Amino acid sequence: MATIFSLIAAGQIPSYKVAEDENYYAFLDINPLAKGHTLVIPKKEVDYIFDLDDETYAGLCAFAKKVAVAIKAAIPCKRVGVAVLGMEVPHTHIHLVPLQTEGDLDFRKKKLEMTPEEFKETATKIAAQL
Ligand code: 5GP
User: What is the tally of structural domains in the chain?
Assistant: First the structure.
């Protein structure tokens, strides 16, 4: 059975898309730690990031870098933090989170509530920098 992130990348489940190419897809996390919190996935369905073949892993990192640069240009922040957890969704994904402070990358903190309009505007802003 396809993972929820495969269904998102295939457009079968809606998402706030930020970027896409043949092999990778980036979209806003639905429970963001900060405005602009983005997930970057390979379209290839592999649960654990370090089980990816080298080519897909390198391509994922390069794609995530482009998206991170766009996030930094679109969202006021000091840096874009990077995290890989995968405790919830068994499909490799890199979290990119705009940071003001170290605490912004604390996954135990209360998530930001954003309206659909805010999500849409944020995704559009980031995509415009790519
Ligand atoms: P992790 O697997 O890295 O522990 O957490 C999965 C992340 O994916 C969480 O931050 C969660 O909010 C996000 N997430 C889970 N399901 C969906 C979904 O259907 N759509 C989006 N946009 N994000 C999701």
Answer: 1
Confidence of residue 1 (pLDDT cuts 50, 70, 90): confident
85 lines ligand 1 (CB under 6 A): yes
Judge if the beta carbon of residue 58 lies within 6 A of ligand 1.
Answer: no
CA distances from residue 31 to 35, 88, 119 in whole angstroms, order as listed: 10, 12, 11
Write the CATH number for 107: 3.30.428.10
Q: Tell me, yes or no, if 93 is annotated catalytic.
A: yes
Whether the model pTM is above 0.90: yes
Burial label for 5, CB within 10 Å (0-12, 13-18, 19+), is: buried
Burial of 105 (0-12, 13-18, 19+ CB in 10 A): middle
Domain span at residue 83 reads 4-128
For 84-107, the DSSP string reads ---SS-SS--EEEEEESSGGGG-T
